[in-house]
């Protein structure tokens, strides 16, 4: 039956497109993309002539119906976003839900994603991590979000904007303290890729030394919460509490 393919595209370096992604983009009847001009450039670079249709945050729900209609006619469709993996801080979630509900197959292709690419070089624990997407735009909401995540035992991954990164780091210092380990991965897979980490207060000072260090696309990672060494483990606290109850 007709299939919707989810196709990741490069996050900078065009050589990161996979053989299978090119094959699928070539073979499908239609490519649904965030921005037809943007994706048009990628397709022409690889000599692919498949037609495109826009599916972005503002028309995704309606476009889902017309995509389902095409699947019913037997057309295969690929979904791409401007860069990286669709659905990951990008459109696609509503489309995939509706296409699955309509009974069609959704085939995901593996490929570039800034979050996992950044994590792999950060030197932060990678056995468990939580992807948080973009932090809220307003400072108060950002502080609330960071406060809720203050004692998160997993590595936290955020997409961040160059305009906001210094404010965000000041808020991380305020909420989680100056010693929390953070890593900033910038311009991944591109010429000016830099991955720099340390205690958050030191990283912020380092960024302030040179405007170039806050330019471009970036992923911010925050290391897991570590209980201070002088704090008693939860189990010890519980035992103490029980002992106190028993004592006269
Ligand atoms: N779907 C994409 C993915 O799979 O990574 C993410 C789309 S989101 C709208 C764009 C954000 O991803 C950027 O603002 C930045 O935080 C991050 N990003 C994308 N490309 C990047 C790169 N080459 N280096 C660092 N961060 C990148």
From TrEMBL:
Q: Keyword Transferase: yes or no?
A: yes
Q: Which locations, inside or outside the cell, does it occupy?
A: Cytoplasm
Q: Which reaction does it catalyse?
A: cytidine(1402) in 16S rRNA + S-adenosyl-L-methionine = 2'-O-methylcytidine(1402) in 16S rRNA + S-adenosyl-L-homocysteine + H(+)
Family annotation (InterPro entries): 4pyrrol_Mease, 4pyrrol_Methylase_sf, 4pyrrole_Mease_sub1, 4pyrrole_Mease_sub2, rRNA_ssu_MeTfrase_I, RsmI_HTH, SAM_MeTrfase_RsmI_CS
GO CC terms: cytoplasm
Q: Sorted alphabetically, which PROSITE patterns does this protein's record hold? A: RSMI
The answer to whether keyword S-adenosyl-L-methionine applies is yes
Record's keyword terms, sorted: Cytoplasm, Methyltransferase, rRNA processing, S-adenosyl-L-methionine, Transferase
Entry-linked HAMAP family: 16SrRNA_methyltr_I
PANTHER family annotated for this entry? RIBOSOMAL RNA SMALL SUBUNIT METHYLTRANSFERASE I (PTHR46111)
Role description: Catalyzes the 2'-O-methylation of the ribose of cytidine 1402 (C1402) in 16S rRNA.
Q: What is this protein called?
A: Ribosomal RNA small subunit methyltransferase I
Specify the species.
Ferrimonas balearica (strain DSM 9799 / CCM 4581 / KCTC 23876 / PAT)
Q: Which gene encodes it?
A: rsmI
């Amino acid at each position: 039956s007709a299939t919707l393919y989810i196709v990741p595209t490069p996050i900078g370096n065009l050589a990161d497109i996979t053989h299978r992604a090119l094959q699928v983009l070539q073979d499908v009847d239609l490519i649904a993309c965030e921005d037809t001009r943007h994706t048009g450039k990628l397709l022409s670079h690889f000599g692919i002539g498949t037609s495109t249709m826009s599916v972005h945050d503002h028309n995704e729900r309606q476009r889902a119906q017309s995509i389902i209609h095409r699947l019913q006619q037997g057309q295969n469709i690929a979904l791409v976003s401007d860069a990286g993996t669709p659905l990951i801080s990008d459109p696609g979630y509503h489309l995939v839900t509706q296409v699955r509900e309509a009974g069609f197959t959704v085939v995901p292709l593996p490929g570039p994603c800034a979050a996992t690419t950044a994590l792999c070089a950060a030197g932060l624990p990678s056995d468990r991590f939580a992807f948080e997407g973009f932090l809220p735009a307003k400072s108060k909401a950002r502080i609330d979000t960071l406060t809720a995540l203050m004692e998160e035992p997993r590595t936290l991954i955020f997409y961040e904007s160059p305009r906001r990164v210094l404010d965000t780091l000041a808020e991380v210092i305020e909420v989680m303290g100056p010693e929390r380990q953070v890593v900033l991965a910038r311009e991944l897979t591109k010429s000016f890729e830099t991955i720099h980490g340390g205690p958050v207060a030191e990283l912020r000072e380092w960024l302030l030394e040179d405007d170039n260090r806050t330019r471009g696309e970036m992923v911010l990672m925050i290391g897991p919460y570590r209980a201070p060494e002088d704090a008693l483990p939860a189990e010890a606290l519980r035992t103490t509490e029980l002992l106190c109850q028993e004592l006269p």
